[in-house]
Amino acid sequence: MNVLLVVLAGMLAASALMAGVWAAQRRTGNAGIVDVAWSFATGTLGAAFALAADGAWSRRWLVAGLAAAWGLRLGLHLWARVAREPEDGRYQQMRGE
Fold first, then answer.
1. Which end of the chain has the lower number of beta carbons within 10 A, N or C?
2. What is d(CA 33, CA 83) in angstroms, rounded to the nearest whole number?
3. Does residue 1 have a pLDDT over 80?
4. What single DSSP character describes residue 54?
5. Would you state the torsion angle of the CA atoms of residues 74, 76, 82, 88, taken in this order, to the nearest 10 degrees?
6. pTM reported for the whole predicted model
């Protein structure tokens, strides 16, 4: 598989996702959803890149599974936090500055 094609597709997908999340946070005023999307996207891209790489299938699947599990765990944790708490103060501070 052409790794360059996978990287370019990943970059385009991540850019589209982050543009959509930016639009959503402009509507809601809560930039915490950016962290959630970033976590899921990073885990997904890590898994895709691992599977597209050269090397033994078993190692590629192991790395892909670990990347996906990490992204899922972090994304779900942040999703729960964003749903129950007000926006992280760092984002309010950045907007103020």
1. C
2. 9
3. no
4. S
5. 0
6. 0.82
**How many Cα neighbours within 13 Å face the side chain of 68?**
12
By the 8 A CB rule, do 39 and 78 touch? yes
Looking at the structure of the chain, the number of domains it has is 1
Closest CA to 52 of 63, 37, 40, 39: 63
Long-range CB pairs of 15-22, under 8 A, 24+ apart, other chains included: 17/41
**Which structure tokens are listed for 63?**
């790395």
- Comparing 19-23, 29-33, 45-49, 79-83, the range with the smallest average pLDDT is 29-33
Residue range of the domain that includes 84: 3-96
Question: Quick check: 31 and 25 in contact, CB under 8 A?
Answer: yes
Return the number of other C-beta atoms located less than 10 Å from residue 4's C-beta.
9
Integer Cα distance of 33 and 7 in angstroms:
24
DSSP, collapsed to helix, strand or coil, labels residue 55 as coil
